[in-house]
Amino acid sequence: MKTAFFNTKRYDERSFTEINRAYGHELTFFEPRLTPETASLASGFPAVCVFINDDLGEETLRAISTTGTQVIALRCAGFNNINLAVAKELGLTIVRVPAYSPYAVAEHAVGLIMTLNRKLYRAYNRVRDDNFSLDGLLGFDLHGKTVGVVGTGKIGQCFAQIMNGFGCQLLAYDVQPNPACVELGVDYVELPQLLSRADIISLHCPLLPATHHLINAQSLQHLKPGAMLINTSRGGLIDTPAVIEAIKSGRVGYLGIDVYEQEGGLFFEDLSDTVIQDDTFQLLQSFPNVVITAHQGFFTQEALHNIAETTLSNLTDIEIGRPCNHEVIAP
Ligand code: NAI
């Protein structure tokens, strides 16, 4: 299928081109994000392939639909960036990659925990500077600590299994408990109880109207003072200004995020030569107990391979009219 890829980097082009040898789709790679301003690039392409930070709001959807696009292939799991009601009205088919490597994201969440706890970012810089002092690097044993997992789907389950290996006590909150987690010994509780008991909280639920700003000024009141908060899911799960206040008061003792609500336009770009205009982001960066990575949880060789394989297979399904079980059905 003739497909316009938006928001592409060299690594996308490399993995898709290689795996497409077995599929034979006609792929064109564009660097810009898909937005109302760049939608004209999709003209004449029956399919577009997009990523998490492309803008699939009403204006873009109407523009690409008018110029012949019928299929939106998301090369990611989340689809919170699509106006599903408008897509449905326009008859657009949406496919996604529901799972490509839950290990990648779960392991990154653990990486953030280790980095924050043992202050590896500071230790690395110190040693490079021939400063071998340990002052300020004191961590804690993970063994025996209570870890709260919010959302125990594919990634949350992997994360729980890893933390179980560290010897942590596991609590979870999910609207649908996962039997594999129950078997692991995870104790399902309500969110306020999880927040008040956990030393480390890791978010692994999708961004939905029900989960938007799940962590806000009110829910932060429940937090055990000095708790660690990890978000590798979606930035919108956290009300960032409220978390900043909680960091300043000491309620949040550590924050590790791979996602940020306003990350579009920041993440995935080299902005090292520019002055970042987002004061909230800059303030977050200034705290010594905050570690930010730029949405790299998914970024492993295995995940990139699986993303390309599933996306291209989805396009083939749609092209030949074969049922595709990765279709996003608008409610
Ligand atoms: P999944 O669909 O397997 O699991 C999501 C879990 O969240 C399910 O168990 C579901 O019941 C639960 N859930 C739904 N609504 C909830 C609510 N209101 N409260 C609590 N739990 C709720 O999804 P998966 O594959 O585990 O991915 C989780 C999230 O991770 C994705 O939605 C995506 O936002 C994020 N993600 C981040 C990546 C990164 O690079 N940082 C890469 C891939 C996914």
Give a quick precis of the structure.
With 331 residues, the protein is an alpha/beta fold. The chain has twelve helices and twelve strands. Helix 1 (10-20) links the parallel strand 1 and strand 2.
Verbal overview:
The chain is α/β, with parallel strands linked by helices and 331 residues long. The protein has two domains: 2-100 and 300-320, Rossmann fold (3-Layer(aba) Sandwich), CATH 3.40.50.720; 102-292, NAD(P)-binding Rossmann-like Domain (Rossmann fold). The radius of gyration is 21 Å and the shape is globular. It contains twelve helices and twelve strands. The longest helix has 20 residues, at 301-320. It has a seven-stranded parallel sheet, with helices on both faces. It binds 1,4-dihydronicotinamide adenine dinucleotide (NAI).
Set down the secondary structure blueprint.
Blueprint: E1 2-5, H1 10-20, E2 26-29, E3 47-50, H2 58-66, E4 71-74, H3 84-90, E5 93-95, H4 102-118, H5 120-128, E6 146-150, H6 154-165, E7 169-173, H7 179-184, E8 187-188, H8 191-197, E9 200-203, H9 217-220, E10 227-231, H10 240-249, E11 252-257, H11 279-286, E12 290-292, H12 301-320
Parallel strand pairs: 1-2, 1-3, 3-4, 4-5, 6-7, 6-9, 7-8, 9-10, 10-11, 11-12
Helix pairs in contact: 1-12, 4-6
Bound molecules: 1,4-dihydronicotinamide adenine dinucleotide.
